[in-house]
Amino acid sequence: MARLDPRPAIIAVDNGSTDASASLLAKALDEGLVSECRQGRAQDGFGDAVRAVESGLDESVTWLWLLHDDVEPRPDALAELLRQGEGCDIVVPKLLEPRRRNHANRIGELGQTIAGSGARVLDVETGDVDQHQLASGEVLGGSTAGLLVSRDAWRELGGTSPELPLFRDGLDLGWRAHEAGLRVVTCPAAGIHHRWAGRTGQREAALAPRPDRTDRLLGMRTVAAHSQHPTLTSLRLALTAVVFALGHLLGKAPGRSLDELAAAWELLTTRSLTAALHRRVAYTTSRADTTHLRPPRGRMLRLRADQFASWVSDRVLPEREADTSIDELTTDRVDGRRARRSLLVPVAMTLVLLAALVAGRRLFGFGTLTGPALAPAPATLSGALDAWLRTPDGQLANAPWLGLGALGSLVGLGRPGWFVLLAQLLAVPVAMLAGTALWHRLLPPRTTAARLLLSLVWGLSLPLLGVTGSGSPGGALLGVALPLAAAAWLDWVRRDEDDAAVEKLRAPARYALWSTLAAVALPALLLPLWGFALAGAMRRGSLHVPGLAVAVFGPLLALAPWLVGLVRTPSRLLTGPDPLLAARAVHASTPWGNTPWWLFSVGAALLWLAGCWALVVDPRTRRLALAGAALTAWVLGLVLPRLALPLHGGTVRADASGWLLLAALVLLALCPAALNPSALNPGRLLRRATGILLALLAAGQLGWWLGAAGAPVHRTRTELPASVVAVEQSNRATRTLLVDAGSIPARWSLHARDLPRWGSAEGDQVPDPALRQQAQALAAAMASGTAGEDLADGARALGIGHLWLRGGDDGLVSAVSDTPGLGPAEAREGATTWTVTGLVTRTPDREWAGPRRGWPAGLGILALLVLAVLAAPTTAAAEGPRRAAAQPGRRSNR
């Protein structure tokens, strides 16, 4: 301060400090450094101190220079501010980060603006080296640290607002100055080093015991007061704060999350202060538009989108070298390999997306998207939620995959059918994208081609194993969950023992999260996944007990209500979603779905040859154990579907796709050892055999996927006559009994406006045993041609308004047509429909749907949120200047 040129009259105000500040000020007063020293109160804000001084100044004083106790102005800072202040009313200096020895000065801020959420927005990149590259310009406001204010402007505006005693007071002052027709500009030539001691918590302040909370509160209050409707804006800001609180909670920063909630609550409970600030703002006659000084709408959203895109890029694109080598700086030759490697992934993903459109050409059109393992989606989001919350008979909760479908419908703008289309269309590309997370951990940099090859083979394993052909929701989910679980398992195995306890739980929590989703697709997979969890918890003879507990009990807690109900139906542990429907797509001789046996055999042979050859290249014990696990899963995938399992009065077969996908993933995880170019040398070129085998496999898979030969998933309209559908959709809401007499034994089901749909094959369509026996007896009578006079009466009692028969000869059709109580037969596309005469209706006592239970869904969502919080990166705490020293007992408001 003594080196300032010109030297101002310096008046210091001590707002109730409790450390050695008073003695330092007394010494400065004796040495003439400070012109005057005044005492304030700890509860006074910065603006209160300035007003107390300003009121007693001589009229000859025309400028006020506001300084904090943690600033270090350059000697020429005041001169530059005064020079810039000609014709202006408020001048904002350039604030620099604290000095660091042997380091260049770095810019902290040059003025401020504010987002609609109340967040502080800077017009410069914080941390940029100060090269005097900035130019002066208009700004909404700035920090009061070093702010130069003309005395006339101070009086006209009434100084800073008492409602903003600490933070955002300078921003509000500049904002009101603009609206009063005054000029607020920046002065980049005036440099002031600032420690931001108040915001970073280095200075204890009576008005801000928690600086983050106070800063958020005053930021939201500023936005609300400057709006046309402060109350409505405060409500919007409070909701925004709740969202931010959830984000901080995911980042394992509960303190900051509580600060957000406390700030929102205080904003709503101190509406009188917001109203007073609003009146102060409205008092100034607005003669200037400040819209151009505010960040444009959506800027923060675009910023978050850019950050998310950068996060995805860092995990999908190959590692790029950030620095340029000395060889590249001293040579005229241009190495295009790096550029080609960086373009390979985006080009490949674009081609895969185009291929997905070609392979999914049959998914577009009119009608309902269905498949052997895909039931029709509900028409609305409320229907999807109802399917999730309705509990089958004897169960505590419905299958969790229905919840994923209901929540995923939000991606389809609330239309479950659109979400199904996206899920079926993007199953292979998304599985490839998930696979990159695993291959990035198994292969070193500069192996982009190898990573793409493995990702391609993994994604195309879905059509090879019949997942995309049957439309299985569980198989598509496993294509994403399994590789991400494997990536988390690798992070767990490679953990750093020196990490904090919370950080050590990140990888187990991610593993538990993806294991939960895998178990949703196939519950029996929990057993091998728990086996891998035990292996991951063991390292160098020590057991990571907290991580093992998270990996085991996390899925159990999330799926507990559903798993407990499966005790009565253990066969469901071996099946995928909608097992009664999917059973039609699973055959004992071809558990791989609609894929031709010869194509499956060739693909399996290439996959096993590649994995075994990679095992020969690197036959370590752990890799041999993985090969054994792959063989076990493969055998289970081929053997279990041969078993006929009783379930809900019918017969189902185990789902093979989950076991086969697990085996395929383990085999592919063995291949990187033979695809690593750093391990190749002229004496061991035979290692390239693995890459050749995988390339052949990928070529065959790609041809099968693009050809979509025999793909049963398609758009279809109902086979029932329009008159039947109209009655089902009316207030009568009748049912239709469907009988397929051509199958052995004859199959039957019920059709209604809410059947079939997601989850209808998760339990008995007729939960009551007596009613189910009646419906089965009606179906048997129709299929055998022995329908008696009571057929129509039995149908009316069950709310069945129409009978539909397929696969019967002329004699069977005539026998049913002669039954009393049935209308004329209507033949259509190989099936015959009869109308049950009389006024048939489905009254409330004939609604067979189970009760709605919301608590299992809430428990599952809560458990997943807990796992997501543990798995998320820890929010970085605000850092203070490196040279800042703690001063115990210090208490001051700037």
UniProtKB/TrEMBL annotation:
The residue range of the signal peptide is none
Q: Which InterPro entries match?
A: Glycosyltransf_2, Nucleotide-diphossugar_trans
* Ranges that cross the membrane: 343-364, 418-440, 452-472, 511-533, 545-564, 597-617, 624-644, 656-677, 689-707, 854-873
Molecular function (GO) terms listed?
transferase activity
Q: Which UniProt keywords apply?
A: Membrane, Transferase, Transmembrane, Transmembrane helix
Q: What name does the UniProt record give this protein?
A: Glycosyl transferase, family 2
From what organism does this protein derive? Luteococcus japonicus LSP_Lj1
Lineage runs:
Bacteria, Bacillati, Actinomycetota, Actinomycetes, Propionibacteriales
